[in-house]
Write a structure and sequence with these properties.
Blueprint: E1 6-12, E2 18-20, E3 23-24, H1 28-34, E4 36-39, E5 52-57, E6 63-65, E7 68-77, E8 80-81, H2 86-99, E9 109-113, E10 115-117, E11 120-123, H3 136-153, E12 155-160, E13 166-171, H4 176-181
């Protein structure tokens, strides 16, 4: 199995993060139609005595990154959507909101620090809130990072935050499901 061309169906874990298996590209049609089984107890979804779950990739979440094809999965148990599937819980909540006559738009900010090296807590710059980026090191880093993030998930803007070396990427607004899937 080549490292390139792998299919990576991701399962949003109930405790945060994602879980996944890796499949060769030729398994794509089967994965989309049948999904794949996994041990739900090892992911915190259920008890070990009753832990057979099925992950089925949602074709609408397909993203290709560096030779990998990623999907977000819906989780099933005995042919029905699994109640503790985080995507299913969000879908049910959004249905209730829509039934009440409302719509929802979500947004999020990702804040982080840029350090001089992985081995040092020293920040790359002493700037403060929304100061222009003027050091070559920071100028060369942030636009590249912003471009990668924008291509992957879409950003509204990037700026320097309050603390030295602190930056913020504000993601483009979307539906809660759209934002969660990104």
């Amino acid at each position: 199995m080549s490292v390139r061309g792998l299919i990576v169906p991701l399962i949003p874990a109930i405790m945060g993060g994602v879980r996944c298996k890796y499949f060769p590209a030729e398994k794509l049609a089967s994965l989309l139609e049948n999904g794949y089984g996994f041990d739900g107890s090892s992911c915190g979804f259920c008890h070990v005595e009753d832990s057979d779950l099925l992950a089925k990739p949602d074709p609408g979440t397909k993203v290709e990154i560096d030779g990998y094809t990623l999907f977000i999965c819906d989780v099933y148990k005995a042919g029905e959507r699994f109640d503790l599937d985080t995507r299913f819980a969000l879908q049910r909540a959004l249905e209730r909101v829509a039934e009440a006559g409302f719509g929802v738009v979500s947004g999020t900010e990702v804040e982080f620090y840029v350090l001089k090296s992985a081995n040092s807590p020293d920040v790359m710059d002493p700037l403060r809130y929304m100061e222009p980026l003027h050091t070559h090191d920071v100028l060369s880093l942030i636009p590249g990072l912003a471009a990668v993030v924008h291509d992957a998930v879409g950003i509204e803007f990037v700026h320097h935050e309050v603390g030295p070396g602190q930056f913020e990427l504000t993601l483009e607004r979307d539906t809660p499901m759209g934002l969660a899937d990104r």
